[in-house]
Amino acid sequence: MNSIPSAGADESDVTITVCPDGPLLVRGAARILDPEGNPLGTDRATVALCRCGRTSIAPFCDSSHKKRRRP
Fold first, then answer.
1. CA pair distance 63, 3, nearest whole angstrom
2. In a structure prediction context, what are the per-residue pLDDT tens digits for the chain, which is 71 residues long?
């Protein structure tokens, strides 16, 4: 997992880290909205957003990607 800090980054910045074969990790004060534009509340400093579509708690990751068969 690699994240690239931006020049002059501070605590108010949002960082999104792409996890290989896993979720997007969102760190910072990001607003996450549902399809209707309503905010999805979270009290976590870091949230994992699903990229595989198998989660049961969309849009958040529940580690369902780990159950995927590899070729």
1. 20
2. 444 555 555 657 999 999 999 999 999 999 999 999 999 988 889 999 999 999 999 999 999 988 866 66
Q: Is the CB of residue 59 less than 8 Å from the CB of residue 51? A: no
Q: Looking at the chain, which runs of residues are DSSP E strands?
A: 15-18, 24-27, 46-49
Rg (CA), the chain: 14
50 exposure class (CB count in 10 Å sphere: 0-12, 13-18, 19+): buried
- Rounded CA separation 71/24 (Å): 23
Cis peptide before 59 (omega within 30 of 0): yes
pLDDT at 8: 53
